[in-house]
Amino acid sequence: MLPDFDQCYQILARRDQSFDGRFFAAVSSTGIYCRTSCSARTPLARNVAFFASAAAALAAGYRPCLRCRPEMAPRQPEHPATCASIVRALRLIDRGYLVDHRETDLATLVGLSADALNEQCTAVTGVGVAMLGKAHRLQMAKRLIDSSDLPLSRVADLAGYPSARSVQREIGRLYSRTPTSLRQARRRKNDRGSGEITLTLPVRQPYNQSWVFDFLARRALRGVEEVSPTCYRRLLKRDAQGDHWLSVNWLGDGFSVRVPACAVTRLATTLAGLRRVLDLDADSQSIDRHLARSSMLSRWVEEQPGLRIPGAWDGFEIAVRAILGQQVSVVRATDLANRLIDRYSNDGLFPDAAVLSRVNVAELGMPGRRGQAIGLLAEQVARGEMDLDETADASVLQDSLCRIPGIGPWTASYVCMRVARQADAFPEQDWVVMKVLQNKAPGCRRIAEEWRPWRGYALMYLWYASTQLAATN
Ligand SMILES: [Zn+2]
Fold first, then answer.
1. Whole domain around residue 165: which residue ranges?
2. How far is the CA of 176 from the centre of ligand 1 (A)?
């Protein structure tokens, strides 16, 4: 995972931003660790050590740099060779799972023994689960201190510290500052009193923001999502106080995020959800390099580098919409989803599984079998029998979806790609794929073999290609 020392040192010496978050550089003479792009003077090689994660640098006794703020670096991209259980465990830790669960719960959930989980986590990040949990806790506390006016006791609660005093102690030890002086050092534009917070989400280049926003715009749900060329908003909740919107603005090299007060209590989950929708954790550099070797894709990769797979804010919603989208256009499928909200929702949000398990969606105008499939899916989700989430086991999810009459392999692959973030998912029965590749499904499957382990991203390039080919025909 970690390049050799000389390579790491060269990356550090040229302050290469594309390696931010992939590894960290720690300096023995100062006791501080940095991102690779830190503007501080390049330290002498003999004083530098490299770590695969911020947690590993912390475990070795280094303190985070106040200049480059390593806690704000993009997340380490998921390597396709990493075992699926570890990928799921790391996603769960990132969402704050360890704030209220034990390590053994995590191991059980991802189907490993505690020892195997620790061993494999160490192979990927340089440290075991407990240290990753501690690093996550510190990262959340620092973000909340930097971006909110929340009292320290609340920060402690949300980040997973036993008390305000323990946050104070940890911040003092690692930053040689008090939380108050850290706050004073940052000029914040936060609307004091509303409880809403603003923070930034970094982006690793290449990132094709216009592709992602265009994809989301064409599928936006009326009244729930609003998409302009540079802003994406999503309604999280509607109550007596009004509408609570989460909004994201494109800054050219990252995003500014406004989190409404109701979502601050679930900040780690909210940020993970946004990173999923915007697909911020993909390693586009490696993906594009791999796909550009294919004669069928090279032209499109060159034209539009950094295509991402917009993920699901809500897994159930995307699964229902995938069924609605079977054999119809995106416009028609979105129209059906909007009608579904108009008909069955009480608050203007997408109806949940319990509601949809009690109605016959086919009455909106679709083949009865499709309506039935949605009913069966909703029943299983409402009973807690299906996990439609990025932390689900994708192969289990694929099988359980295919067991529902009316859900075929196209829908299952599409859901695994957007909900479980399976980078290699490939619905070869997709009619756009068959058209662009001028082949039937088995032929498409054969052609796609060379695009593994990133066939989902190849699909995005094929979808892009079809819009270009349609424009020239
Ligand atoms: Zn630094």
1. 84-185
2. 15
Could you list which residues have their CB under 5 Å from ion ligand 1?
34, 38, 65, 67-68
Q: Are residues 294 and 326 in the same domain?
A: no
> Domain for residue 166, yes or no?
yes
Q: Given this model, what pLDDT does residue 184 score?
A: 84
**Is the overall model pTM greater than 0.70, yes or no?**
yes
**Is 370 in contact with 323 (CB distance < 8 Å)?**
yes
Measured in Å, residue 39 CA sits from the centre of ligand 1 at 7
Predicted pLDDT of residue 189: 55
Distance 448 CA to ligand 1 centre (A): 42
Looking at the structure, do residues 442 and 407 belong to the same domain, yes or no? no
| DSSP 3-state of 385 | coil
Evaluate whether residue 406 is within a structural domain. yes
User: Which residue is it, tokens 């959800």?
Assistant: 273
Ligand 1 centroid vs 258 CA: distance in angstroms?
Answer: 26
Same domain, residue pair 346 and 364 = yes
The pLDDT of 254-280, averaged and rounded, is 95
Average pLDDT over residues 99-115: 96
CB 330 within 8 A of CB 217: no
Judgement on whether residues 295 and 321 belong to the same structural domain of the protein = no
Distance from residue 68's CA to the centre of ligand 1 (Å): 4
What is the longest distance spanned by two Cα atoms in the chain? 71
Residues 298 and 431 in one domain: yes
> Could you read off the pLDDT of 388-416 as tens digits, one per residue?
999 999 999 999 999 999 999 999 999 99
Distance, in Å, from the CA atom of 140 to the CA atom of 157, rounded to the nearest integer, reads 11
Q: Specify the number of domains making up the chain.
A: 5
Task: Give how far Cα 139 sits from Cα of 167, 202, 248, 267, 425, Å.
Answer: 11, 14, 21, 12, 32
Instruction: Tell how far the Cα of 190 is from the centroid of ligand 1, in angstroms.
Output: 25
Q: pLDDT band at 187, cuts 50/70/90?
A: low
Place of tokens 């800054």: 251
Ligand 1 mean position to 27 CA, how many Å? Answer: 10
Question: How does pLDDT run across 269-306, given as a tens digit for each residue?
Answer: 999 999 999 999 999 999 999 999 999 999 999 999 99
Using alpha carbons, select from 132, 141, 124 the residue that is nearest to residue 77: 124
Q: Are residues 181 and 202 in the same domain?
A: no
Measured between its terminal Cα atoms, the distance across the chain in Å is: 45
Q: Which of 112-121, 196-205, 284-293 has the lowest mean pLDDT?
A: 196-205
Spacing, Cα 32 to ligand 1 middle (Å): 8
Predicted pLDDT at 10: 97
Is residue 387 one of the residues assigned to a domain?
yes
- What are the residue numbers of the active site? 34, 430
Where residue 140 sits, what CATH number does that domain have?
A: 1.10.10.60
- Within-domain flag for 125: yes
Q: Are residues 102 and 155 in the same domain?
A: yes
Q: Based on the domain organization, do 340 and 406 belong to the same domain?
A: yes
**What pLDDT is recorded for position 470?**
84
